[in-house]
Design brief:
- The complex is a heterodimer of chains A (about 170) and B (about 375).
- Chain A is about 30% helix and about 45% strand.
- By secondary structure, chain A is α+β, with helices and mostly antiparallel strands.
- Chain A has a domain of about 100 residues: Sandwich (Immunoglobulin-like), CATH 2.60.40.
- Chain A has a five-stranded antiparallel beta sheet, with no helix packed on it. A five-stranded mixed beta sheet of chain A has the order 3-10-9-5-6, with no helix packed on it.
- The longest helix of chain A is centred in the N-terminal third of the chain and has 21 residues.
- The radius of gyration of chain B is 21 Å and the shape is globular.
- Classes of the chains: A alpha+beta (about 170), B mainly alpha (about 375).
Chain lengths: ~170, ~375
């Protein structure tokens, strides 16, 4: 019993020992920026991957020139002019001094627009990042990815069919 | 004969019923997976930053590892017994089937739970490749994530099979309710994959939730085939929902504190996974109990209607969401009735199929 407990404690210690250094989260690495003028506010839009591809997640940062202190706002996303998503501008979880979206993907390729509505000490202002070109998704077609991923489901269905046939006489 | 008498004498001397330990390890593993999933979903919505080695992820990996190793141990022991010419007790996981010819003798329940755990490893690799290509998105319904969730579901189906064999014993009865309840709660996340399907006016996730919850509830009820069977599964699900309602935001807060990470701005703290479980399921369970003389398709249809009709109400109550467009609501409830009827019939049949896993008892009745 004591040996078992010692073994378990050792395993837990090893797991946490390994997990602790691995918990260092990746810094936000901006590789491309765009500028947007939202009324009196100069916004710098940062991208951690460029060019942007559909379904590929990246960090977006939205940095007003004099910081986010005392400011609030909303972000609305449009694809081909049609509203797709939106919400209040929130601090980036791994770069708290700016607003941002963490590991966020734009779902479809095409021309996207980001509209910023910012309210702060200098008043309210609206600005748009237009013509954000989002390229086709990388990797295999989604049909193939779904086919690979649902093999367990079809395996389960096959098992059910076999069990159904074998128990038909007994159950019916 | 000598072997049989020795086995009986040995089993009567035991304090723990034969088969209970590995069965508990498998269902315990699936519960750990469910805890990991509810915690992980909450972590992504309320905190965010992700690595391969977050604590919720470790729970997810550990759950499948525990179930998988327990299944492997039973398969190896059964194989050893069978090679030595010992009588293999079918009460431990069901009849043994040959794997790779006759290389292994695997009790069918443990074979399925073990296959699920092995698939989890394979889909883990597929998920790693996916993240390399698409980035470390926190999208729950990406194809590899659905593959991982389906793999865990297969282990959970194996757990139901293992307990179904022992349903005539008290631990088997409780085990069926626990394993079926765990599978039901977990499936409410897997159905998010249905968002990828074109549903027209129908909310495919709500309709899918109705289908799977009615099917699994009926399956559990018909395996147990006694008054209170459906209610037992419903109560297990309600208990999991209640505990996770408290646990998911609490564990997320504690873990964020421990790692020095702040909560997201605008994090609403609404429990993610528990809120995907229909609160109305307990009504369906009561309906199944009260209408036990009504054909399964009709009770199933009623169950499907209850779940799809109440789903938007739950979201209004918890999240303050708006009521959906009437056309979408009606279309989803109609789909819920049709799918619920099908689920009732299938669940009843699956329950009977699972009863057939215990050979000795069934044969003696035949």
């Amino acid at each position: 019993m004591r040996k078992t407990l010692l073994g378990l404690a050792g395993t837990v210690a090893l797991l946490f020992g390994l997990a602790a250094p691995a918990l260092a989260f990746e810094p936000v690495n901006v590789v491309h920026t765009e500028k947007v003028q939202a009324g009196p506010y100069d916004l710098t839009i940062g991208f951690s991957t460029w060019p942007v591809k559909a379904m590929q997640s990246l960090d977006f940062t939205f940095a007003p020139e004099n910081g986010i202190e005392g400011k609030k706002g909303t972000l609305t996303l449009f694809r081909e002019g049609v509203e797709d998503d939106g919400g209040p501008l929130a601090r980036h979880p791994r770069k708290r001094e700016v607003w941002g979206l963490d590991i966020f993907a734009l779902p479809e390729p095409g021309t996207w627009t980001m509209r910023f509505e910012v309210d702060g000490p200098a008043g309210a202002g609206t600005g748009e990042l237009k013509n954000l070109q989002v390229m086709e998704q990388p990797g295999p077609p989604m049909g193939l990815s779904w086919a690979i991923s649902t093999i367990p489901l079809f395996g389960l269905i096959a098992l059910i069919v076999v069990a159904w046939r074998r128990t038909r006489a007994a159950v019916d | 004969m000598t072997v049989h008498i020795t086995a009986t004498a040995a089993s009567s001397a035991r304090t723990v019923p034969r088969g209970l330990v590995p069965a508990s390890a498998v269902v315990g593993g699936t519960l750990i997976s469910l805890i990991g999933l509810t915690w992980d979903i909450q972590w992504h919505s309320d905190v965010g930053p992700d690595t391969f080695f977050t604590l919720p992820h470790l729970f997810l990996y550990a759950g499948s590892a525990i179930s998988g190793l327990a299944s492997l141990a039973v398969v190896l022991l059964t194989t050893a017994d069978s090679k030595r010419g010992k009588v293999v007790d079918p009460m431990v996981g069901g009849r043994a089937v040959g794997v790779f010819g006759r290389t292994f003798a695997a009790p069918v329940g443990y074979l399925i739970s073990g296959i699920g755990a092995a698939l989890f490893l394979v889909y883990g690799l597929w998920d790693q490749w996916w993240h390399g290509l698409y980035g470390f998105d926190a999208v729950i319904d990406s194809p590899p994530h659905i593959g991982l969730l389906l793999s865990i579901s297969i282990t959970m189906v194996g757990a139901v099979m293992i307990f179904a064999v022992a349903r005539d014993q008290r631990w088997g009865t409780y085990g069926v309710a626990a394993a079926a309840g765990t599978l039901l709660a977990f499936s409410m996340v897997t159905v998010l994959g249905l968002r990828a399907l074109p549903g027209g006016a129908v909310n495919t996730v709500n309709a899918g939730s109705a289908f799977f919850s009615v099917m699994i509830l009926f399956m559990g009820a018909y395996v147990l085939k006694r008054r209170g069977g459906a209610l037992a599964v419903g109560i297990v699900v309600a208990l999991l929902q209640a505990v996770f309602w408290w646990f998911s935001p609490w564990a997320t807060d504690v873990y964020a504190d421990a790692t020095g990470l702040p909560l997201r701005d605008y994090a609403d703290g609404i429990p993610g996974l528990p809120n995907m479980i229909p609160m109305s399921l307990i009504l369906v369970a009561v309906a199944v109990e009260l209408l036990h003389k009504v054909p399964a398709w009709l009770t199933g249809a009623i169950g499907g209607v209850i779940i799809t009709a109440c789903a938007p109400l739950q979201r209004m109550l918890v999240q303050g969401s708006n009521f959906p467009a009437l056309e979408r609501y009606v279309a989803t409830v109609v789909a819920g009735a049709v799918l619920g009827a099908l689920a009732g019939v299938l669940g009843r049949r699956f329950g009977h199929m699972l009863r057939h896993l215990a050979p000795a008892k069934e044969d003696s009745h035949a």
